[in-house]
Write a structure and sequence with these properties.
single chain, 316 residues, mainly beta, Pectate Lyase C-like, ten-stranded parallel sheet, 2 helices, 31 strands, elongated
Length: 316
């Protein structure tokens, strides 16, 4: 009798374990190595076979492919200098997106993503068409757009990336509540950071340099915050236009921009009520030595002023 009870108990326990496994599978760690010796030699095949919550770890190497990420996964390279996705030899003539994200809650880290160049190409290094994704610690080179946050994409975090030699460094369109932070964005033929019809985004702690037009451009976008950025050696520094209103720009360093440091054709706030920005062409004085200029800094293009210009550049 006791044996029958024990047997029934074990059977029930096994059924419970099996049933639980059907309800919730554990996330997997999947390995990719282009030289073999791993689960896969191609990243896209690993993505195709992955499930939500899985992590795909990519060994150093050069992967000639484009990626469509349609699951909530973590895609992690071994090293952003040596884990390379190279578009040039993929033969993907109808594919403009090197990494296209159409699932929420993805993480992309430690990859070098190389396009074909900026002159005759419309490639996008990472195209985000979803929400709550993290793009961090990547190198993104030689594209039409380095990182693009598309329509209705919200709460994405683009941070700690090196984005270089793209027509647009980081661009948004009709996307709100995103965070663009701690990126080094340089050598953009058009704009380092470009917001278009995008509201309530936060742009902070970026270095934007060597853009042929403007370091940061905000077009037809409202209620954004731009602070703690270094905008240096661009043609123009920060430019707001085309109905952009109620944006707040403060605690930025703007210097060595060849035509002007800032231009604002509409009405926005260029300080936070206590601190403004550092301008290398500010000619006012600080008689009370509080670190804030006694006279406002006039923003070209309209009637906006930085009421509390900073006398000294701060470290970012």
């Amino acid at each position: 009798m006791k044996e029958r009870i024990l047997t029934v108990g074990i059977t029930v326990l096994l059924l419970i374990v099996m049933f639980s496994g059907c309800i919730e599978e554990k996330s997997k760690l999947i390995y990719v190595n282009d030289d073999g010796g791993a689960d896969y030699t191609q990243i896209q095949k690993a993505i195709d076979d992955a499930s939500d919550g899985d992590t795909i770890f990519v060994h150093n190497g050069t992967y000639y492919e484009t990626l469509i990420i349609n699951k909530s996964i973590n895609l992690i390279g071994a090293s952003k200098d040596k884990t390379i996705i190279d578009f040039q030899n993929t033969n993907e003539i109808n594919q403009n997106n090197i990494v296209f994200i159409e699932a929420d809650n993805c993480t992309i880290k430690e990859l070098k993503i190389i396009g074909t160049g900026t002159t005759n190409s419309d490639t996008v290094g990472i195209n985000i068409n979803a929400s709550y994704n993290t793009i961090s610690n990547n190198i993104i080179l030689n594209n039409y757009k380095g990182v693009y946050i598309g329509e209705d994409s919200k709460n994405n975090n683009v941070s700690l990336n090196t984005v270089s030699n793209n027509l647009y460094g980081v661009a948004t369109s009709h996307s709100d509540n995103n965070y663009i932070s701690k990126n080094n964005i340089s050598l953009s033929s058009f704009y380092g950071i470009y917001l278009s019809v995008s509201d309530t985004n936060i742009i902070f702690d970026n270095t934007v340099s060597y853009s042929d037009f403007y370091g940061i451009r905000i077009k037809s976008s409202d209620n954004n915050k731009v602070f703690d950025n270094l905008v240096v050696m661009n043609k123009g520094g920060i430019y707001l236009c085309c109905g952009s209103g109620n944006n707040m720009i403060y605690y930025n360093t703007l210097k060595q921009n060849s035509e002007w440091n800032a231009r604002d054709d509409v009405i926005n706030q260029w300080d936070n009520g206590s601190f403004g920005n550092y301008w290398d062409d500010y000619t006012g004085v600080d008689n009370d030595s509080d670190g804030i200029g006694d006279n406002p800094y006039n923003i070209s293009g309209g009637n906006n002023q930085d009421r509390y210009p900073l006398m000294n550049q701060f470290n970012i």
